[in-house]
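Work Package 3 (structural annotation) set out to generate three-dimensional models for the target panel prioritized at the project kickoff. During this period the team completed the workflow that converts sequence records into discrete structure tokens, so that structures can be stored uniformly alongside our sequence database. As a representative example, we reproduce one entry of 140 residues exactly as it appears in the project archive.
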Amino acid sequence: MPQSRTRSGSPPGASLAAALTRVTEAVQHAVDHRVTAGRGPDPAGLREETWQLIHLLGALGDLAAALAPQVGGYPERYRLHADDDVDPAEHVARTCRELAALRHALGEAEGAAREVYTAVSHLHAVPEDTTGTASRADHP
């Protein structure tokens, strides 16, 4: 069966794979060159970044949920062969189960990110006291 192509000539999902690659590389770059280098965000920055993380986790969960029925339809759309001695239908079923588990885990992660957002929303950076008489603990 010939593989279908998108308008750009790439296989379906190729643009999604490219987008996921770009996002992954951008996040890893930010972690490597900003956060681990001691230049992490202030409370307002962390709040904004956590808000974006909430949306990213939600989108990834939506992706996992959308992929499961696509994979479930593979036996009807493709002639499948497994590279081991297992029936391809078993691999399809396992893939669907794992996508459901992934969706659940991403939902849990999104909930945790919302808790981080809620907690950090109560924090506000106060300008340093330039007189040198106040300590960090003295600020409300």
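Residues 41-121 form one domain.
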